[in-house]
Amino acid sequence: MKPIYVLNGPNLNRLGKREPAIYGTTTLAEVEQICRAASGQRPVVFHQTNSEEKLIDLVHEAIDEGAGIVINPAAFTFTSLALLDALKMFEGPVIEFHISNIHKREPIYHRSYVSMRADAVMAGLGAKGYATAIQTMLGMVGDRS
Predict the structure, then answer these.
(1) Is 47 a residue of the active site?
(2) What is the DSSP secondary structure assignment for residue 138, as one 8-state letter?
(3) What are the entry keywords (predicted)?
(4) Which tens digit of pLDDT belongs to each residue from 39-94?
(5) Which candidate in 5, 23, 113, 130 is catalytic?
(6) Which of 16, 111, 114, 138 shows the smallest number of beta carbons within 10 Å?
(7) What CATH number has the domain bearing residue 26?
């Protein structure tokens, strides 16, 4: 059974400490536990990186190994055409996930390059919303392996 890739971009390693009024107090380690618990029998590959290059490499890995991608690209959402190009090569479903409601924030956060490829976009559910993203992805990948 192919895994779901959960990929997290820059500064998400600081969850729980970084702007808790926006991102809450849940840590990235807790997010990983949430994802693994929500996935049931489906394996999860969970990564965080502050590097655009590494995030693209992880998408490339998912192209070869993954059933679906849940991605919180953080700031790369709004800046990275290279990430968009990598995601366009992935044939399975992609969910773009944001902890905060990016549309309620400053205008610079309103244009997502990743949304041009994503099959679904989730925003504003908080860190615990990763469980909803995983459950949705399970339905999207169905019995594909």
Answers:
(1) no
(2) H
(3) Amino-acid biosynthesis, Aromatic amino acid biosynthesis, Lyase
(4) 999 999 999 999 999 999 999 999 999 999 999 999 999 999 999 999 999 999 99
(5) 23
(6) 111
(7) 3.40.50.9100
| Domain carrying residue 83 | 4-141
CA–CA dist 22, 68 (Å, integer): 27
Residue that has been written with the tokens 């807790």 in this structure:
30
Structure tokens at 60: 């490339």
Terminal-to-terminal C-alpha distance of the chain: 5
13 among the known binding-site residues? no
- Structurally, how many domains does the chain consist of? 1
Determine the Cα–Cα distance for residues 99 and 130; give it in Å rounded to an integer: 8
Question: In degrees, to the nearest 5, what angle opens at C-alpha 126 toward C-alphas 121 and 132?
Answer: 55
The 3-state DSSP class for residue 46 equals strand
Q: What type of residue sits at position 110? A: H
Nearest Cα neighbor of 93 from 123, 120, 59, 127 is 120
Catalytic residue among 5, 98, 113, 130: 98
Length of the chain: 145
